[in-house]
Structure to design on (1086 residues):
């Protein structure tokens, strides 16, 4: 049985099949309207995330299945003393597949290890949100016909934005891509991402502070929000924020076949006037989020038309080799719940990291 | 594409067709059990209204469709910074039709302007609640066989009760009706409703302070609750409240074929003993609420057996001619969300009113 | 029309049929996947109980039906002034069957008296939780092949644990059973349960304070949690808690065909290592909870293959003979809602008890 916990859980080959299925669903959604008849999706949202939850629910309903679950821990009694490990074993009696959102890092992975049904990580704290990455990839693919040989600009908060980090990781697996990182100095893309992902993949990249100067030859512009709270100096925030607002004067500088993506919600980092530009792909992205989740559910339930998946996800293979002491990250699920098995495993660079939250061993 | 935002959005002819469909569904609900197979209703309830929400959900399930959404903003993340305009564009990717309840006036109309799917106003602040009016009309029709040539008594809080105002507006479009307004002095029906609606339609009317004296020849008695908070003088409230409680001694004064309606919930303004009187129609009204919402969903999705609707609702036609400055009503959606287009349009009496909340131009 | 309000509402013969249906569903769940097509379950949860709610929802979805309702009063407006009596009359317009969880004792019974659809008590305050008892019985039956001639150990908080009290009542109706009550002195099984239930049924029983000494010849071990708050002396709690934790050293003392049950959630009263022991039946119990609720829904909707039920439940027959004054229990539904009919009825021992909450007449 396979789960989706980490955006890199699928091999490139598995991912290609999943995205092709997503494209097929997009072309002819009606052909799948009975594919999950009699199947149930549990949406276990320990914190609210309405867009993500509704996208999963729409996906399952489109497949002819049904949905149960909870939208928020404050309308649920699950948080009262029961471990995620026990909860998922109970939910395995109620549903055929589960999507879990949890404020603690690693909670969906922990659930996966005790589950009798496939578990999908629908966001674990600030850690991972793999179905957003799948959505982004399907949108790039449908707009540009490929995931390789593209020049992609990432704009906004590149330091904390997990969707950016995941997408960088995902696109680094394809040939011939080029990255432009557009952010204020305070919110630059983390050095470890450059050192461990971008450079080893031999991806040409640039770091710039102005959106205007970067627009000219982008194939994809991936916008994110800059949150005031990220700045130590409020004046600096006020001085900078306008530079990272995408408006029509900046759009004029872009190519005719560029596509603008945004994980949404946007606040004001994209002017309303841009919405009517055919290059705006962010609402279409929400639609793709439903299609790719349909493809994901079919794939994890073993109902996808193409061949089977490998027995274990890459992250699960890695986890199987863990050793060592308990994690010290206060936002890690293992701090909240007793863990009986070893925790640390070396990453691609030999750094021992917690299986659940990926923090370095202290 | 048509929405339902204002109780007067349907022409009388369109409304007649919708109510006839409601009556047909009432006679034979099973005949419609597959009519919305594969369709999804989104219930977007920014504030809780359980009866209204469940009535919509029951309606969609009865039609063989399915439901997703949120029951309250406190279990949703939609309120965090995302505009109603963006939310409905996302929800348009998830569902085929939406019912929206929102604390701000005009929010469903704003959603309708950005939506790719039909939007139903399920209550916007103290402004409008059109499906309640449809429910009231279907109940009157099934009880009395017509919407014209009736003597209707409205009892209770006629000053603030929006269900009363909407029903007065709706019944003023039919011939030969007569109104009796029964309320304490402090809660009299607003003068503008008399001047702008009742008098222009040449409807005979009376204003009285006692329920007993009005009972004798009513065809319909529409009860509403009197809330203590509406009174500036608590003693006045205590002195009056009994006069507006419908009990069996008062029921004895009414005609044998009278029907008692109430939008529910009732608190104590109708004695429990009245529930068993065959003239009590208020629980039947709840059932009609499901049938009329089934008819509404079918109509807005273009699945109703009878002919098509006009291209635009009356309120949308009016809105298209708006001009002017931003609204100043603090409870109007446009105060919370930036509006790019003009706002004011003259009403039937030449008074410029906000397209969204209908407040007068300041 | 029948409801399920009290764990003893079904006669032994009716219960046998229901449990046999549960076993049949367990063997072949797919055979029932269309049995409730077009039927709707309302889950009316005035307080959250996620496991119970999801179990009901999974049951209805497995039967091909659909679900509406609310997961918590804080996302609902039903609690605002509307009585349970009025709410259930409205919900009768929306659904075909209802499961109600309520913090006040007797609320589901009150709903049942005004309902046009079958009402299932999904827990009313600390009073009754009959579907938990059904779940326990089905699990014992499937593990041991019978409900009679068994030696059952009840361990933990036997004073306040309502699941224990209900199960004692239920198993006392079968021949040849034997009970062992295992608890600290402060949390002993109530004297009235021994006097009124165990002794009249001529059931051999023992009361012991140690789990180890009782393990040897149990057929069933029913574990419950000991809550710190139950102890007047915190030191006493600390001293005792370990004795009532089921771990592998204690499991070694048990028979090979013993079954361990627990109503869940467990906190730490069963060690994680026990989960892998084949005698651990508590997760299987959660699965049986779905099957037995499927059987219950079919039975109450009159869709069960076997014969019909008696016209009234035992508790409803008893209630029909009530007389007397209003209840004084502050946690009784009748204190919150006006009651027009008599309240007290003698129990099997001639003690007059409130029809709703079963408190003694003061």
């Amino acid at each position: 049985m396979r789960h989706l916990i980490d955006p890199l859980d699928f091999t490139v080959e598995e991912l290609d099949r999943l995205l092709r299925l997503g494209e097929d669903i997009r072309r002819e959604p009606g052909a799948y309207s009975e594919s999950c008849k009699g199947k149930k999706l549990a949406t276990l949202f320990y914190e609210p995330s309405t867009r993500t939850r509704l996208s999963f629910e729409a996906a399952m309903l489109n497949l002819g299945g049904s949905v149960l679950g909870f939208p928020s821990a404050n309308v649920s009694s699950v948080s009262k003393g029961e471990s995620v490990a026990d909860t998922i074993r109970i939910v395995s009696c109620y549903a055929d597949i589960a999507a879990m959102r949890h404020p603690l890092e690693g909670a969906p992975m922990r659930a996966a290890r005790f589950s009798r049904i496939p578990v999908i990580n629908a966001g674990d704290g600030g850690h991972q949100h793999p179905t957003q990455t799948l959505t982004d990839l399907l949108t790039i693919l449908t707009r540009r016909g490929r995931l390789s040989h593209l020049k992609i600009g990432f704009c906004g908060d590149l330091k904390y934005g997990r969707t950016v980090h995941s997408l960088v990781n995902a696109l680094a697996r394809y040939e011939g891509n080029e990255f432009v990182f557009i952010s204020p100095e305070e919110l630059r893309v983390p050095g470890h991402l450059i050192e461990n992902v971008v450079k080893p993949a031999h991806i040409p990249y640039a770091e710039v502070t102005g959106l205007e100067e970067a627009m000219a030859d982008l194939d994809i512009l991936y916008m994110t929000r800059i949150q005031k709270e990220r700045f130590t100096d409020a004046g600096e925030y006020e001085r900078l924020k306008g530079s990272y607002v995408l408006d029509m004067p900046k759009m004029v500088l872009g190519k005719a076949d560029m596509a603008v993506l945004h994980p949404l919600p946007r606040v004001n980092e994209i002017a309303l006037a841009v919405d009517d530009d055919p290059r705006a792909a962010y609402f279409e992205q929400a639609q793709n989020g439903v299609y790719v989740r349909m493809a994901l559910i079919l794939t994890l339930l073993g109902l996808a038309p193409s061949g089977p998946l490998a027995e274990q996800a890459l992250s699960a293979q890695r986890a199987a080799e863990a050793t060592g002491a308990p994690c010290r990250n206060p936002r890690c699920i293992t701090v909240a719940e007793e863990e009986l098995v070893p925790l640390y495993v070396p990453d691609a660079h030999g750094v021992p990291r917690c299986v659940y939250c990926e923090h370095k061993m202290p």
